[in-house]
Amino acid sequence: MKKSPQVIEKRAGAAKKRKSVLLLLLIVVVAGATGVILLRNHADFHVNPRATSLPSTPASTSSSDIEQMRVAFGPTIPNKASAPSPVPKEMVWIPGGEFSMGAKGGADMNEVGMNAMLDSRPIHRVYVDGFFMDKTDVTNVQFARFVKSTGYVTVAERKPRAEDYPGATPEDLVAGSVVFAPPGHPVSLNNHLQWWAYVHGASWRHPLGPNSSIAGRENYPVVHIAYEDAEAYAKWAGKRLPTEAEWEFGARGGLAGKAYVWGDEFRVNGKWMANTHQGHFPDKDAGEDGYAGIAPVASFPPNGYGLYDMAGNVWQWTSDWYRPDYYKELSDQGGVARNPQGPDSAYDPQEPGHAKKAQRGGSFLCTDQYCSRYMMGTRGKGDIDTGTNHLGFRCVMTPEQWQAKSGRTSDKHNLGQ
User: Fold this and answer.
1) Beta bridge partners of residue 367, listed in sequence order
2) Which residues make beta-bridge pairs with 380?
3) In this structure, are residues 77 and 97 in contact, taking their beta carbons and an 8 Å threshold?
4) What is the bridge-based pairing of β-strands 97-101 and 124-128?
């Protein structure tokens, strides 16, 4: 499949248009939390495709850095008011309350795990109101209902406009999206082009390209979803996308300071707890957890709040703009941040000017060899106009939205406030 640098650049949401196509040495779309990475002609420029917003650290992390990252977690204090009844279909009630937000660290972390936390510190106290949350990621069948009802066309399905891509050839102006394409042999991990491709015709209907289909995969997460696609679905459903704070409170399931959604052991009594990558990355997914690639929703145990797949399988959009220094900003304010909505604007020092939202949860490609974003509290990021075949979303609903949708009368006690 011919790659189209002009289309890939647009999908990355680059702030500045190219003055000349010849100036662009290489553009490669990298899926997942980092969205799209521009590989420029810098020998020392190396970025983990699902890494934090900061460049990879040198060969080792100093002991003083490790000590600085060891921050004690306080307890999770859920609201005690009773849960509302009834609960919206296919959602669960998340009580909200106060908790410590951020990623657990320690000297036992490997370099990949440590790097996964560089934008997830300092640990800070946060309070969120109670809310409803989808039990699972939005599935193909659910998204298909939305499309049938509204006629919505996703970003990946729209043909790029020539005026947006000076110098692009007609054959480059073809709708498509980003697909993981594992090489057939081991490769160095410093060239993302070896395992990602912009595929013409790839979309939520055709997750691996025009010859693929979602037939028989109705209960799989919908993928190739740009941020505006997720927002459009949420609005249609009478819901919204979660903030980072809401997402993390829900993912923790009432636990405090654990390394994973389910606790501190990656495997519990030898049992796989999430759909992640086993084998050698990126050329072989051994599928030891039962799935080589994406899995149907709810294939692994739920967390303490009854939420499935809050680690692994597919990345999930949040409504927060991404900034690596946002946690420091909240921490410097002192006290408890109440219902934080994220920063006012996006900033990624690796790609200034790109409009990125925070993503959470990791995917079926996460592994301790290269990406450990299945770890609790870690963060991802992605350009808002870029979808991939391991990026989806789930929605939340406030009690007020549920009242409006169901026509119920407000009762603050019953709404858990």
Assistant:
1) 371
2) 359
3) yes
4) antiparallel
- For the segment 362-390, the average pLDDT, to the nearest whole number, is 94
Burial 296-332 (b: 16+ CB within 10 A, else e): bbbbbebbebebbbbbbbbbbbbbbbbbbebbeebbe
Q: What are the φ/ψ torsions at residue 111 (nearest 5 degrees)?
A: -60, -40
Q: Which residues, 6 or more positions from 265, have their beta carbon under 8 angstroms from its beta carbon? A: none
d(CA 325, CA 390): 26
d(CA 174, CA 161): 9
What whole-number distance in Å separates Cα of residue 95 and Cα of residue 8?
41
Q: List the structure tokens of 380.
A: 């991802």
Nearest Cα residue to 33 out of 389, 385, 373: 373
Tens digits of residue pLDDT in 51-108: 222 223 333 444 444 444 446 899 999 999 888 999 999 999 999 999 999 998 766 6
Look at residues 23, 25, 356, 36 and name the one whose alpha carbon lies nearest to residue 166. Answer: 23
